[in-house]
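Q: Got a minute? One more chain.
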Amino acid sequence: MFVLGIDPGLSRCGYGLVAGAGDRSTRPGGVTAVTAGVLETDPRAALPERLCLLRDELRRLMAEHRPDVVAVERVFFQVNARTAMSVGQASGLALAEAAAAGAEVAQYTSNEVKQALAAWGAADKAQVRRMVATVLGLAAVPGPPDVADALALAVCHLFAAPVRRAVAEARR
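A: Always. Here it is, folded:
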């Protein structure tokens, strides 16, 4: 299973694609990072232009990598209303482009990601990033933070997928 994690943001949108156990590109018994990076837009550009650029880049990512699942951070709480709006706009684009590409879509709050990777919902970002490196067998913590957060979302989905399937099956 290929999972694309998206850490939404209008200025900086992190992405990370991982292959789960069973895929030919995966380390034996583990999870492998396939690609990761940051999509950036110019804060001086007009909002519609920035949204269009981000949409085009997300669409390109989906077409190039054809993920089975796209895991997007759910905006749960933001202190700054302006930041919340831009993150929400970027998140909406990621959700729409994932659906348009035919990928399954999942959303996770930062606490759910922390729980999945560090076994503690109040873990700090450094702990989660170290666990991302450990789980993916990386020599160093991935950076910048947007990349590490996107990879964490993808890994979170791989860890949560069996439970999500079981719950869905039980509801049927």
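A: The chain is about 50% helix and 20% strand.
Q: Perfect, thanks.
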